User: Fold this.
Amino acid sequence: MRSNRVGWLLLAPTILILAVFGIVPFLYVLYVAFHQWNPFGANPNMIYNGADNFRRLVFDAEFLTSVWFTLKFAFFAVASEVALGYLLAQLFMKDSPGKGFFRTIHTLPLIVAPIVVGSVWRLMTTPSIGIIPYLLNDWFGYDLNIGRDATSAFVITVIMDIWHWTPLVTLTLLAALVSLPKEPFEQAQIDGANRWQIFWHVTLPMIRPAILATVFIRLMDALRTVDEVWMLTGGGPGAATRYVGLHIWKLVFPKTDYGYGSAISVIVLYLTLVMCWLLYVGLVARRDRKRPS
Amino acid sequence: MRADRPYLTVLLWTLLSLLTLFPIYWLFVISVKPAVELFTTPSVLLDTVYWNNYVKVLNDSTLRRYMYNSIVISSGNALLVTTLAFMACYALSRFDLAGKENIFFWTITNRMAPAAVFLLPFFLLFTQVFVIGDWKLYDTKIGMILLYCTFNLPFAIWTLRPTIDAIPKELDEAATVDGASTWQVIREVIFPLARPGLAVTLILTWVFAWNEFLLAATLTSFNARTITTGLSEYVTTTGTEWGTMASIAIITLVPALIVFSVVQRQIVAGLTFGAVKE
Assistant:
């Protein structure tokens, strides 16, 4: 085998960059999390207050609700995106006239910046001036009011996220699908397997790592969504779409409560990490157990 | 794979494309309507088109500057990130490095942090730590290119790893037996086979860098200010210039579309077919 020194050398720039721009800022935030600090408040000094910030957040109903809403949002959005993205990627595997054209159109939402996405969806859904409530009322007599109805606001944020991010899932899964060797599929067809059997026993095991990576990335991005939802609903009505990223944003910017904001960020980071770690270990361990047979 | 009913597929694509395009069409509608008409009863079709917003935006030299900055930063970052991730994934996939799975997982944790509180340590790093004489990392393109690695590099490593892992190890072993160096194996064997994955990684990291808003808004002022941040200057608490914002947003789609259509051609099937037998 080749020497591992080459391997470490190839990995070194990545580790260096992520250590400087990842670990150093994290240590700073961790330090601030143990202090009471409001740089624009009555007392601008950092005061050490032990674990007070963490004690406070355990009983902070607003924070806990926002965590629950965020989890709900991330679950519905990511589950739909992965299912839809996979189907679309499979559809792109077929030869059809104008495939390249449709693929470009399908990826367009990705190139719209999140703050623009939020703005457009807001203009489309605002009651009385938006086109969506207008058409829904005209065609079905349904009254959509995301400024008043918490469920509609939640659903619209999920739909917006699906519109914006499904193409990412499609593209990553498409890259995985086109890289697969053809032999196992041909063999399965010779053996008389039906579509569902081919998907379950041939395709899925082979693209499982790609699906896993995509789910992770979408999950952690959905959990820290800010820009789009901020522009669309501003977190309302009430706190119905005040997802955890927005909650932190509101603590840090209007209130400049850096100490508490940092503590919440550390906890959110920790929860995301544990969640992904459990998923990762669970799924990867399962894959490894299967391998010898 | 050949479609059994191509017309059905085309019909399905057309319907899906209409759904996908609608919000973008609406963005265009906003960009060509005078401000007063935005707040009346909506209609799907346009009756009159006002190009004034576009004239204003295209004549604005500051916005042209922001556009140029965005192109340099996104392209620089996407190329850097894809190269580094390709090297890292090759190392993770082919070498028996101690604790490599932990390193792999650690990279992705850098993407999990909620941005708001992290702006402050980044600001301090950029204005007080990375300072040489009069030169600061603050408001420089290279600063943004390096900073965007924090969220793009983990993403690239995680999307590229499955592709590299899927390339049969027998291929590089055969090449090594034939006397190829590590560099030759990477260039002649892995690179051509990893092309679809590399293309997708390049596109998506480019897009993430292009669309990033919070960090650019905090860490740049003019020399490295990006178009996404410039566009947000028209979105304020006192009132948003929707038309101007929308027309900038439509214009920013053009460079992105060019990058997309060029790079997407690399996503083609069948590269690994029969490779092992040869």
